[in-house]
Amino acid sequence: MVQAGTHAQQDGFTPEPATAGSTRRPLSPLVGRDEEMARLRAQLLAREAQVLTLTGPSGVGKTRLATELWDDVIGAFRDGGCYLDLADQHDPTGAVRAALGDGPTHPDHPTGEASDHPTDLPTGPPLDLDFLLVLDCGSRPPQEVSALVAEFAARAPRLSVLTVATQVLGVYGERRIQLAPLAVPGAAGSTGPLADVASVRLLVQRTRAVRPGFKLTEENRDAIAQLCVRLDGLPLALELAAARLKVSSPRALLEELDRSCSALRGTAADTMSPHLSIFDAVQHSWAVLDPRRRALLTRLAVFASPFDGAEAGEVLGLSVHEARAALEEFVDRSLLLPQEQPDGSIRFRLLRTSRAYAWEQLADEDGLEPIRNRHAAHVLRRARAAAAQLGGAGQAAALAGLGHTHRDTLAALDHLVHVGDGDKAAELATASLPYWLVRGEAREATVRLTAARAAGVTSARGRARLAAALGEAQLLAGRYAQAGAELRTALAQHAADGDLLAAVDVQEVLARLAHAEGDLEGAKALLDDVVKQCRELAHEPTLASATGRLAEVHRDLGDLPAAARYGQEAVRRFDDLRDARRAALGRLVLAGVAADGEVAADAEQAVRTARAALSFLHGIGDRPALSYALYVTADLLVRRHGRTTGAWERAAQLLSAARSLEKAHGGLPVQLPAAARQELLTQAGQRLGEAAFDEHSRAGARLTAHEAVTLATAPLAPPPTAPQAPPAADTLTRREQEVAALVAEGLTNREVARRLGTAEWTAVNILRKVMRKLDCTSRVQVANRVLSARAAADSELGGPGGLPRVV
Questions:
Q1: Is the model's pLDDT at 724 over the cut of 70?
Q2: Nearest-CA neighbor of 163 among 330, 14, 334?
Q3: Burial of residue 674, with CB atoms counted within 10 A of its CB: 0-12 exposed, 13-18 middle, 19 or more buried
Q4: C-alpha span between 236 and 240 (Å, rounded)
């Protein structure tokens, strides 16, 4: 018991003399709790609630924070306060009464014996008591203390009670403050240098206490970050890990933890916690559960990702009511951590240390395989349902759902492969492929699909679908030879089975492969055949996809009218199917084609279209498509504003960001042609100069995906232009004027393209339009018309003018 201050005797209450010191004085600085301290301090001093309860899982640092808070606020209470560690008290209610000056007994119980019915305790007269009572209850507050706190809170309006426990007191008006583990590297909201992340700071600080001179280095930073994530930022686990680092490297400790978290043990010199091993802390906090509830919580360890109530009920075989009641109890006892999602729903997770403890319990009881079988069946059902939504209106929700359960999918696949159920493993891996490809995980997908095949797939249809999935994954991973072999195997099997829809889907992927390898005519022939078959089969999804591919092929062949025609049809079909992702990709192709339109408004519309598509693709987390969208946006930017330095500076950053994303996550197999991308980089280097280009490229490489999208979608002010007469009906567009003027200067088509920041074939097409409008048959005639118009304009202006209006 720790008391501070005094209060006057009143209504029979006599305070104890104030005592100094504390049984648990912290001897090291508090790390990473500034926000929690400020929030708790403000609530206590503002008297927003009489009863506050600081909860959180065992080992999260509740007592450490409470002792720091006590020192900070006790001076603000007129009558002082008392810090009680109830774990050390034989008679908790007597200790509470003594702390408040009521003595060890109650009038109804002169012998000092505890009441059998604590809720029946009578209330006394009101108390003018401005006092802070901190009750450190360990795992849970004793029931009789809850009733006593409710009694005194009613009698003393200025009494503030702070309870420290893994669960709430359960009195009316109580306000709960949930203490979460420290932030870990890579978590949402965790930004800045690694050394500033709270969990890293604590681990390094405590390691230095036992290993002077320890510091973050390039060699150990990744292992340190992984340790903090593995231990969930739980202060007790971090302190015990720091003690082990006295004689171990971070990497070696990680490998030891891979085998078992029971390696985390220490002494009283390593932590303020009464628990000297992480498993002891988990076991102690779980001991409050009855056997049935404990068995349910243990089986929840099968979830590798946060889960919701419906998922828990399905895997555990519980009704909705039973699942809700169990989850509420686990949350109340801080055994599960709730996580609110952007849509307002709640998901739950076990700390990794708790999950490791439960996993070992299941293995010891031979309960692991049955629950993993149920979990794998659940994951497969969810994957089937999500796959059906990925091409339609529920696309974004399906992708988000697969993201929530991504680690569960991998765990279920591992289990199915381990038990040799290749058919289900192949089905799950194939259904998960679209998610992996959108997330830029094509190489990982090939590993998973190959493992499923090795487990043994018994049906010919399953083998064919697995081969098709592997072929598509290999294509996006850039392994064209392997992709071709898998796709041709799948096509032959589908044809033998008479599965025409599956066969035409494979042909469409083969066309993408031909396009990626540069065989434009071969790709066009394949796609023409796919379109014909899809019309006969009324197979709309693949018809829309093949039409969109034809737009890209015709773009790269230089046939822009055909590219625009196919692109518009594809976007319309995707819109009808409500496939927003592929509609956005189609609009990117159209934007590039429209930028070569004959009116300036086409270019502006192209920029708006590309920016909207870019924002959407970023919103659904399509990483390979994001790099493509950034290339297109940079291309459009310099086409529209290629005469301004700002446009080239931004383009250099966007191109560098696109390259970084492509390197990290891969790209779409068909993008802007490689020559066009290289031409953009070359032009940017020429326009900016080597030093400036390198500076902006480095800045672009440092951009996150979100920062790159923000930069790409920000408006760029157009350069000022000289006043011009209103254009006549037969006036050339501004882009056509620019091309004609550069031709008059004697520039070649390639030089014109470089100057304007566009592809050479684009410059050629624009020049052809100029020649038609001016009724010229050669470049020389175009140059003569420009020079004649310029001379006339100079004469009218009395001197050299700006870019003349060509008629």
A1: no
A2: 334
A3: exposed
A4: 6
For residues 332 and 329, what is the distance between their CA atoms, to the nearest angstrom?
5
Helix (H) or strand (E) holding 115: none
* Residues whose CB is less than 8 angstroms from the CB of residue 2 and which lie 6 or more positions away in sequence, other chains included: 19, 21, 22, 23, 70, 82, 83, 84
Any bridge partners for residue 307, and if so which? 348
Mean pLDDT of all residues in 175-180: 91
Position with higher pLDDT, 745 vs 236: 236
45-51 long-range contacts (CB < 8 A, ≥24 apart) are 45/73, 45/76, 47/158, 47/160, 48/175, 49/173, 49/174, 49/175, 50/153, 50/157, 50/159, 50/160, 50/161, 50/173, 51/149, 51/153, 51/161, 51/163, 51/169, 51/171, 51/173, 51/174, 51/175
Contact between 182 and 202 under an 8 Å Cβ cutoff? The reply is: yes
Residue 61's Cβ-count burial label (10 Å; 0-12, 13-18, 19+) is: buried
**Sheet strand arrangement including 159-165:** 2-4, 81-85, 131-138, 159-165, 51-55, 175-178
pLDDT at residue 104, as a whole number: 40
Collapsing DSSP to helix, strand or coil, 750 comes out as helix
Q: Residue 347 in 3-state DSSP? A: strand
Please tell me the number of Cα atoms within 13 Å of 170 on its side-chain side.
14
Indicate the SS3 state at residue 359. Answer: helix
- Token look-up 């991504």 returns 406
Pairwise CA distance, residues 699 & 709, whole Å: 14
pLDDT of 408 > 70? The answer is: yes
Residue-wise over 682-702: b if at least 16 C-beta within 10 A, else e? Answer: ebbbebbeeebbeebbebbee
User: What are phi and psi for residue 782, nearest 5 degrees?
Assistant: -60, -45
Token output for 328: 């509420």
- Percent above pLDDT 70 for the chain: 87
Question: Amino acid identity of 3?
Answer: Q
| Residue 55 dihedral angles phi and psi, to the nearest 5° | -115, 170
Read off the pLDDT of each residue in 664-683 and give the average, rounded to a whole number.
81
Q: How confident is the model at residue 457 (pLDDT cuts 50, 70, 90)?
A: very high
pTM reported for the whole predicted model:
0.77
Helix/strand/coil for 200: helix
Give the bridge partners for 161, in sequence order. 51, 133
* Per-residue model confidence as pLDDT tens digits over 753-798: 778 777 777 787 788 788 777 877 677 778 778 777 766 655 544 4
Q: What is the DSSP letter of 805?
A: P
**Separation of alpha carbons 273 and 59, rounded Å:** 7
- Please identify which residue in the block is written with the tokens 């010199």: 269
**What letter represents residue 166's amino acid?**
T
Q: Compute and round to an integer the Cα radius of gyration of the chain.
A: 35
Virtual torsion, Cα 116, 50, 337, 192, nearest 10 deg: -150
**CB crowding 107-125: b at 16 or more within 10 Å, else e:** eeeeeeeeeeebeebeebe
Structure-derived torsion over alpha carbons of residues 195, 199, 204, 206, reported in degrees to the nearest 10: 150
d(CA 488, CA 468): 8
**CA 217, chain centre distance (Å):** 27
Name, in order, each residue with C-beta under 8 angstroms of 510's C-beta and a sequence gap of 6 or more. Answer: 484, 487, 488, 491, 526
